[in-house]
Amino acid sequence: MTAAEPAPTGPAGAGVGHRLLLPLLVLTWAASWPVIKVGVATTPPIWFGAARFSVAALILFGVLALRRQVVLPPRSDWPLVAVSGMLQMAAYSALTGFALTILPPGRASVLAYSTPIWVVPLAAWRLGERMSRLAILGVGVGLAGVLAIVAPSLRPGGHEQIFAYAMLMAAAAAWAVSIVFVRGHRFTASPLVLAPWQMLAAAAILVPLAGLVEGPPPALAPSAMAALAYVGPVGTAFAYWAVVEAGRRHRASAISMGLLATPVLGILISAVTLHEAIDPPLMAGAALVGVGIRLATATPTGRPRDAASEAPGDPGLPSRLCGAADTGEG
Q1: Which of 40, 56, 122, 310 is the most buried (most CB within 10 A)?
Q2: Which residues pair with 304 in a beta bridge?
C-alpha cells in the first residue's frame, strides 16, 4: 500500500459484502447494455430513457427520505445538476438508446465507454491540465481501438451503422464534457444527495423531447416493462448507491481497473443472451480501447489517477463516482 492510495475507510471495509460490491457493480452495469437493447426494441429510446430516470429518481428520493436527507440542491450546485442532467444523463441516454436500435450492445458499450480518452484533451484545453506522454499515447491507442471497431462498416451500405457509431461518439463526448465540468466544480452537497435531482432534471428534459420527436407515450410491451424494471431500480438507482459506497470502501485505482472489465463482460453477456458475434475487429478494438483508457487515466509514474470518475461505468450516472469518499457521505 502506498501513500497515494489510502486504505479503504469504514469499519466494514474488509467485510465480505463490501468486497463483493465492486464485482456486483461491474456485473450490474455490464448486464444493463443487453437489457436496454431489449427495452428499446419495442419502446422509442427517448421515452425509455425518460422512464428509466423517472423510476430511478423516485427510488433515490425514497432512500434519501428514509435518511431524512431530501433537500433542495444548494444554489452553488445548480449548474452541476443542470449540466450532468442534460449531458451525462439525458443526452447520453438518448444517443446510446438510438445507437442500440441499430448496433449490438456489446459493440456499442465499448465505444460508449471510450469517454476517458476524450477527457484528456478536453481537460488540457478547458482546465489547463498537462497532457503527459503516457496520456497522449493512451489517446492514440484508444482512437486506434475505435477505428478497429468502426472499420468494418466503412463500406457501401454501412451508412446506418456509421450513423450509430457517430451517435456513440457524441454520447461519449457529452459524458466527457460533464466530467471536465465536474472537475472544476466545488461541491456543496454530497453526490448522493444531488443524484436524484440530476436524474429528475434528465427526465424533465427527456419527456418533452420524447413527445416532440417520438410522439405520445407508448404502451409498454412486457419485454420493455421487464427491461425497465431492471435498469431503473437496479441498473441506475442501486448502481449509483453501490458506486458511491464502493468509493468509500475501495481505493480509486481498484475501482478504475475493476470497471474496465465492464465492457468485456458486457460483450460476453450479449453474446450469450442475444447471440452477438464476437469477431476479431471487436476483440482488437475492445483491447485497444481498454489499454488506451488505462494509459490515459494513469499518472506519469504509471499509477491510476486518484479519481475513479474517468473509469468507464454505466450511461447516465454522475461523473464524480467516488465523491462520497471525499465527503464522508455514503
Answers
A1: 56
A2: 298
- What does the pLDDT look like over 31-80, one tens digit per residue? 999 999 999 999 999 999 999 999 999 999 999 999 999 999 999 999 98
Give the ranges where 103-251 is alpha helix by DSSP (H): 105-112, 115-126, 133-150, 159-183, 191-214, 222-231, 239-249
Query: What is the H or E stretch that residue 91 is in?
Result: none
Helix (H) or strand (E) holding 45, with range, is helix 45-66
Smallest Cα–Cα separation from 279: which of 97, 148, 160?
Answer: 148
pLDDT digits (tens, 9 = 90+) for 83-106: 989 998 999 999 999 999 999 999
Max CA pair span of the chain = 59
The Cα 296–Cα 298 span in angstroms is 6
Count of CB atoms within 10 A of residue 75's CB?
Answer: 8
- Integer Cα distance of 202 and 316 in angstroms: 9
Q: Is the CB of residue 56 less than 8 Å from the CB of residue 197?
A: no
231 by Cβ neighbours in 10 Å (0-12 / 13-18 / 19+) ranks as: buried
Report percent pLDDT > 70 for the chain. Answer: 81
- Hey, which residues does 298 pair with through a beta bridge? 304
